[in-house]
Write a structure and sequence with these properties.
Length: 224
């Protein structure tokens, strides 16, 4: 089986690029350009973007920056897959910042985020046990979070909730001031259960994080 193409420092393997509204996090509801890069070394049990594992084509970085600019939308999200697995992700993120965009990156947390341009807002997806991938979490990524960053816990059951709470306490994330996003797996964990847990947790920066796009568009629809 051939190795997956990860692009280069001058090109990324692009799965899709489109404009919609940001579906989650502290910027939910805002118009956003989504730049989805191909490939991910994780296989989370609840993954809803498996089509990004292999589908994609090489695009030069200036071409991607120009395509983003044509939408006229300030907010940009780099996502995947796992965007940081591609060497072109770091220079692309910096180029988008240079072009005046507000840039977010959603990362699965198993790749070091330290080399990222400091202007980029990290949305760190810490994996909980039900994902099957929690052993891949890099604690150093959580230790490096800033107040402007966000950390997301996709939770499928009570065990995931308790794991997330322990992770937050272990890394003192509530004191950091970053948003602590608890995202129930759609159709597996009721949002009201998560809400009750957060109220009882005493966390100051916790938020119930529902994915708006799953309520607005059909589950199978892409490019939203």
């Amino acid at each position: 089986m051939a190795a997956r193409d990860r692009g280069s420092e001058d090109e990324v393997v692009l799965n899709e690029l489109y404009a919609s509204v940001q579906g989650e996090g502290t910027r939910a509801g805002r118009p956003c350009v989504f730049v989805r890069l191909t490939g991910c070394g994780l296989r989370c049990s609840w993954c809803d973007t498996a089509y990004a594992f292999d589908e994609g084509a090489r695009r030069a970085l200036p071409e991607v920056v120009q395509a983003v600019a044509e939408f006229g939308v300030p907010l940009v999200l780099l996502t995947g897959g796992e965007p940081l697995e591609q060497p072109g992700c770091l220079p692309l993120a910096a180029a988008l910042c240079d072009a005046g965009h507000e840039v977010l990156i959603e990362t699965g947390g198993h790749v070091d985020t330290a080399p990222l341009d400091p202007r980029v807002v990290r949305v760190l997806d810490v994996k909980c046990p039900a994902s099957g991938m929690h052993a891949r979490n890099l604690p150093g990524n959580s230790a490096a979070l800033r107040a402007e960053d966000e950390v997301k816990f996709v939770v499928a059951d009570e065990g995931d909730l308790l794991y997330a709470l322990e992770w937050i306490r272990e890394h003192d994330l509530d004191a950091v001031g970053c948003a602590l996003l608890f995202s129930p797996v759609h159709g597996q964990l009721a949002p009201d259960v998560v809400s009750d847990f957060l109220v009882a947790s005493g966390l100051r920066h916790a938020r119930l994080n529902l994915q708006l796009h799953k309520y607005v568009w059909p589950a199978a629809q892409r490019g939203v």
